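lol forgot to send this yesterday, sorry. struct tokens for the thing we talked abt
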């Protein structure tokens, strides 16, 4: 009799212990995802890729010189909505009446922001001296960057300039989107 009730007690204990363990796993998964979202500004802004209105054509004179624009996005996570905040920047260059080229300002070597140098008609990364041409391609073979600057999709809608903003993995020869 006593043996039977001991066995029953052990079964009860095991049932309760597995329920607690499974409950813990189910609870931890959304918490882990929430922490990741909270730590990544683009995730907070609603995903890795965002289509955003950046400026109007009037702000981009047809002189071949790129202009730098901050990318501002509204942010939200599972719990809160945040005011709009900068999540990156792009260089926009007018290439025709209705055409614009966009480059992410992030250097693909290690993530510093590149500067445009009008006298050299190209971009320069101050961190480790990578040099890029006006179209973003590597201009100096000694540049440590494994690829050229990342071009982004642009849509000109009337006079509005919309950019599909996305960051890509640094340190890789391939253009791999950051999810
Ligand atoms: S981060 Fe640009 S060259 Fe290293």
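and heres what i got for the seq, position by position
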């Amino acid at each position: 009799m006593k043996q039977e009730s001991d066995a029953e007690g052990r079964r009860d204990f095991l049932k309760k212990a597995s329920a607690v363990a499974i409950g813990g796993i189910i609870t931890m998964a959304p918490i882990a995802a929430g922490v990741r979202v909270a730590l990544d500004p683009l995730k907070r802004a609603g995903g890795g890729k965002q289509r955003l209105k950046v400026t109007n054509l009037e702000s981009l004179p047809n002189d071949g010189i790129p202009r730098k624009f901050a990318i501002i996005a509204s942010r939200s996570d599972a719990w809160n909505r945040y005011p709009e905040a900068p999540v990156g920047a792009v260089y926009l260059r007018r290439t025709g009446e209705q055409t614009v080229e966009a480059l992410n300002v992030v250097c693909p070597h290690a993530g510093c922001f590149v500067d445009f140098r009008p006298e050299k008609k190209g971009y320069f990364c101050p961190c480790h001296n990578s040099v890029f041409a006006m179209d973003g391609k590597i201009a100096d073979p000694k540049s440590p960057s494994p690829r050229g600057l990342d071009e982004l999709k642009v849509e000109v809608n009337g006079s509005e300039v919309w950019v599909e903003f996305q960051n890509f993995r640094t340190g890789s020869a391939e253009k791999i989107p950051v999810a």
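Confidence is low (pLDDT under 50) at residues 24-40, 43-47. anyway ping me if u want another try
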